[in-house]
Amino acid sequence: MTLQTELLPILFVPDPRLRAKARPVAPDDQRIADLSARMLATMYKAPGIGLAAPQVGEMLRLVVLDLHENDVPAPMVLVNPQVIASTDELAAREEGCLSLPGQFAEVTRPARVKVRYQDLTGARKEIEGDGLLAACLQHEIDHLDGVLFVDHISPLKRNMLLRKLAKELKLKAQEKA
Ligand code: ZN
User: Fold this and answer.
1) pLDDT in tens, 103-150
2) What is the three-state SS of 121-135?
3) Cα–Cα distance list, 168 to 48, 153, 155, 174 (Å)
């Protein structure tokens, strides 16, 4: 029998918590282990490939990821992650976000990054990557500082996308009512 993990509600833009700075956390806190398990379950259900704690209203520097490459589950929990090196070379890729459902835009970021973080035992780790992993790491770490992928696109495109999102969320709310 598997234990049912309680899912967390995902916040949508313009919730102000998505624009706030998250605080560092103690990795060995049991609460962090519980929260990351719930965040992973919430991310899989959505479905998504990354989720940062502020997206579920927890203002903590905690990120979960699973790129699910080759259809093999590979959950990762990153506590207090920070980008410690990035290439001058840039790469563009289409991004979306569970906090801006249904919205996508091409975002340009450093092509390769190195990230330092702690695991749930507090051990210091590093991960380095390019492609989808680099984009996902940067996108999720941005969330810990209140930065969204739309901040990396032109103001014109950003406003269009945010207006479209507001309209779609309003429609959804009306359908529910
Ligand atoms: Zn996001």
Assistant:
1) 999 999 999 999 999 999 999 999 999 999 999 999 999 999 999 999
2) CCCEEEEEEEHHHHH
3) 19, 20, 20, 10
The total number of residues shown for the chain amounts to 177
Region class of 173: left (phi > 0), else alpha (psi between -120 and 50), else beta? alpha
Task: For residue 7, count other CB atoms closer than 10 A to its CB.
Answer: 15
- In this structure, the dihedral spanned by the alpha carbons of residues 36, 37, 43 and 48, taken in order and rounded to 10 degrees, is 80
Q: Which residues are catalytic?
A: 140
The three-class DSSP label of residue 72 is coil
Centre of ligand 1 to C-alpha 176, Å, is 24
CA distance 88 to 51: 26
Centre of ligand 1 from the C-alpha of residue 1, in Å:
32
Residue 39 Cα to ligand 1 middle (Å): 13
Distance CA 62, CA 118 (A): 10
The 10s digit of each residue's pLDDT in 146-155 is 999 999 999 9
Q: Going from the N-terminus, what domains does the chain have, and what CATH number goes with each?
A: 16-176 (3.90.45.10)
- Residue 67 has, within 13 A of its CA and on its CB side, a CA count of 12
The residue with tokens 């313009």 is 14
Model pTM score: 0.95
